[in-house]
């Protein structure tokens, strides 16, 4: 990130936090230059960037002022799911979302797709081309069940940043994080068992549990601090909970980072009730602050945490390369992998291992963190500008997903039908609940380029939301008496 981008990000955070209020004059260019030890041109570039994002407005001979805008929406409140084992639904809606990816003229505003257009991916293309040119027979053969040793070594080295001390032998390569989660669930549970999950939770995880005949207890979750440990303990006392699935670092869909003291408390709770923890860390590398947060696995002393991740969100989902560090469940996980898919594709493993070994991965990560953070700041401004009042919005600490909560009568499923006329689609909140809750919520993706098309789409979405909220308000009015 350049100096002017760093300064712009700092000023944007101060505006978001209310340190500079709507309509308030900002410090002069000369004052900021002296305060931050940067040139006047750097400050001017920073102000120009904030002006482009419509966060500030220049006034001739007066300086720069915070744009007049609506107040920052509050965070979504602690969720309140039914705290009892339930059967998982919503498969048809998930299938509709997945099938719509094939329709190129639909703008997917709520998908979990990263940006795969950046120039930092060019070395990956070259590596894949060189591998193909060599015509190495190994590329067309089965790999071992555990995965390519060279890739496992690189993954173990990357894990150091999250506080983990792993060896290559501790890692099992999978076909994406989805398979890592799948084999982990099958390694620790049987059909009919009960698993506790955050609420809302990733729809892919929920559908995996449905496929294995596992019941779910949705645990209330705070949009800033994560799963309620008090509610989780109560669930342990009332039900034979076999395992917990959590996304503590850059949660999907809420975007929070669980504080360290709560991560340790969660691990202690699992130890007390002898439950496994399946930790989904697929977005952990996309934290905007450095160093990245520690994983639960980094405090795991008895092997009960199965750490799952992949390069699907950091590089490209089409490569289908993931991994799991299964701890005490290693042999069981390898067996489940053999039953499910056997070995993972060899060529993509080699390509990813070489991409990391040559030093391309970390620069690519730094670039994507910067892009997603800037995109979030832009999208956040657009949401404030185009959406009506009365909404709650998550404040992600990384990644590229935003969660929006609308008043309770609102129906995002009906909204999606309206948006289809404009060839737009969001991810409706009910996909992220085992029982179909959160119909009044939606998930947005800001990995998309924040260009004119994206702004127009958000303006259409905001207008549709406002219209739907107004209709809900009318429907809620008491009927006029005819007496």
Automatic annotation (TrEMBL):
Presence of keyword DNA-binding: yes
Keyword Transcription regulation: yes
A UniProt-annotated Pfam family: Aminotran_1_2
Keyword annotations of the record: Aminotransferase, DNA-binding, Pyridoxal phosphate, Transcription, Transcription regulation, Transferase
Residue runs in coiled coils: none
Superkingdom field: Bacteria
Span of domain HTH gntR-type: 1-69
InterPro entries cross-referenced by the UniProt entry: Aminotransferase_I/II_large, HTH_trans_reg/aminotransferase, PyrdxlP-dep_Trfase, PyrdxlP-dep_Trfase_major, PyrdxlP-dep_Trfase_small, Tscrpt_reg_HTH_GntR, WH-like_DNA-bd_sf, WH_DNA-bd_sf
Gene Ontology MF terms in the entry: DNA binding; DNA-binding transcription factor activity; pyridoxal phosphate binding; transaminase activity
Similarity field: In the C-terminal section; belongs to the class-I pyridoxal-phosphate-dependent aminotransferase family.
This protein's name: Putative HTH-type transcriptional regulator YjiR
Species the sequence originates in: Duffyella gerundensis
């Amino acid at each position: 990130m350049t100096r002017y981008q760093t300064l712009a990000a700092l000023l944007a955070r101060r505006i978001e936090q209310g340190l500079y209020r709507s309509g308030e004059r900002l410090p002069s260019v000369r004052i900021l230059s002296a305060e931050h030890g940067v040139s006047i041109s750097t400050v001017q570039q920073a102000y120009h960037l904030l002006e482009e994002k419509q966060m500030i407005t220049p006034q001739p001979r007066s300086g720069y002022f915070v744009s007049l805008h609506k107040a920052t929406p509050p965070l979504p409140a602690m969720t309140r799911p039914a705290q009892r084992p339930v059967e998982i639904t919503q498969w048809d809606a998930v299938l509709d979302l997945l099938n719509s990816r094939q329709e190129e003229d639909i703008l997917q505003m709520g998908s979990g797709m990263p940006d795969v257009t950046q120039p930092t991916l060019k070395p990956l293309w070259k590596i894949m081309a060189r591998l193909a040119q060599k015509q190495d027979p190994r590329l067309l053969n089965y790999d071992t069940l555990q995965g390519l040793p060279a890739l496992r070594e690189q993954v173990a080295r990357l894990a150091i940043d999250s506080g983990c001390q792993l060896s290559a032998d501790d890692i099992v390569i999978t076909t994406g994080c989805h398979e890592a989660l799948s084999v982990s669930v099958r390694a620790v549970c049987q059909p009919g068992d009960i698993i506790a999950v955050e609420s809302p939770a990733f729809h892919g995880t929920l559908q995996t549990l449905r496929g294995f005949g596992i019941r779910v207890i949705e645990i209330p979750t705070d949009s800033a601090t994560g799963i309620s440990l008090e509610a989780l303990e109560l669930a342990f006392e009332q039900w034979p909970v076999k395992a917990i699935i959590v996304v503590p670092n850059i949660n999907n869909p809420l975007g929070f980072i669980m504080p360290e003291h709560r991560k340790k408390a969660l691990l202690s709770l699992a130890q007390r009730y002898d439950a496994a923890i399946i930790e989904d860390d697929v977005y952990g590398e996309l934290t905007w602050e450095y160093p990245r947060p520690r994983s639960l696995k980094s405090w795991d002393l008895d092997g009960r945490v199965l750490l799952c991740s992949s390069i699907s969100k950091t590089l490209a989902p089409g490569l289908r390369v993931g991994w799991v560090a299964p701890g005490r469940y290693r042999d069981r996980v390898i067996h489940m992998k053999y039953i499910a898919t056997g070995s993972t594709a060899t060529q993509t493993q080699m390509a990813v291992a070489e991409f990391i070994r040559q030093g391309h991965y970390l620069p690519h990560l730094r670039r994507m963190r910067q892009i997603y953070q800037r995109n979030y700041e832009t999208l956040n401004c657009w949401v404030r500008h185009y959406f009506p009042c009365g909404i709650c919005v998550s404040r992600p600490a990384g990644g590229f997903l935003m969660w929006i909560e609308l008043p309770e009568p609102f129906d995002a499923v009906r909204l999606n039908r309206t948006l289809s006329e404009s060839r737009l689609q969001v991810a409706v909140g009910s996909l992220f609940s085992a029982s179909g809750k959160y119909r009044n919520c939606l998930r947005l993706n800001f990995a998309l380029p924040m260009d004119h098309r994206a702004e127009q789409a958000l303006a259409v979405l905001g207008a549709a939301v406002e219209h739907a909220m107004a209709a809900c308000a009318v429907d809620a009015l008491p009927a006029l008496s005819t007496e």
